[in-house]
Design a protein that fits this description.
The protein is an alpha+beta fold and 212 residues long. Helix content is 46%, strand content 18%.
Length: 212
């Protein structure tokens, strides 16, 4: 089992980064490749080593909390590693944990790849297991109000229309501040196609956020 890798990111795409570890390049799929690509120094990526018949894959995370939540999500029937990765791309671990503990199906079904039945299975399978996450994580989640995650003016701004509001909420869940998102939108708004999708707009915004 590969628990983490440490090295310099030498290449990144929208779904993964390549980490140079002693002259070996590890391809690591991660919820937010741009987070690691921002650094010119060596980074530590906590990993989940996934082995199947036709592939051996590494999924990577910035924190132990993300790593633990990813592994918990894999225990839910119908959730594979790609869907679990998408969930963490759409919401912070503490927000996902809070939604599960609060049985907030409306929040869970906003996450990528999650329908009502899967959300119900997440609650049924995981609600009593969150205490097994890193110390203090479950307790923090139980006290988290989900409005706080997407509050603070993030979803309140109407500028950019519904598509930008949805993209902004997802980006806020990745940890970007309202000020950072405002700057990104200011740089992007005159170049965005009116028919752009939420996913495509998120990718453009992430590229802008990476540039700073």
């Amino acid at each position: 089992m590969i628990d983490f890798v440490r090295g310099r990111v030498i290449h990144w795409e929208t779904e993964y980064v390549v980490v140079d570890v002693r002259d070996i390049g590890y391809q690591v799929y991660t919820p937010n490749p741009y987070y690691f690509a921002k650094s010119d120094e060596a980074v530590t990526i906590f990993t989940h080593h996934h082995v199947r018949e036709d592939a051996t894959l590494l999924f990577g995370f910035a924190t132990r909390e993300e790593q633990s939540m990813f592994r918990k999500l894999l225990d839910v029937s119908g959730i594979g590693p790609r869907v679990a990765l998408g969930i963490l791309a759409g919401g912070k671990p503490e927000a996902v944990a809070a939604a599960i503990q609060q049985e907030n199906i409306a929040f869970l079904t906003k996450l990528p790849g999650i329908g009502k039945k899967t959300a119900q299975r997440m609650i049924l399978d995981l609600k009593d297991k969150l205490d097994a996450l890193p110390a203090g994580f479950g307790g923090a989640a139980s006290g988290l109000v989900l409005d706080d995650v997407f509050g603070g003016g993030v979803a309140a701004s109407a500028e950019g229309g519904t598509v930008w509001q949805e993209a902004r909420e997802a980006l806020a869940a990745l940890g970007y501040t309202a000020a950072e998102l405002d700057r990104a939108w200011h740089s992007l708004k005159n170049t965005v196609d009116p028919d752009i999708t939420v996913d495509a707009l998120m990718k453009k915004a992430l590229q802008q956020l990476f540039k700073g």
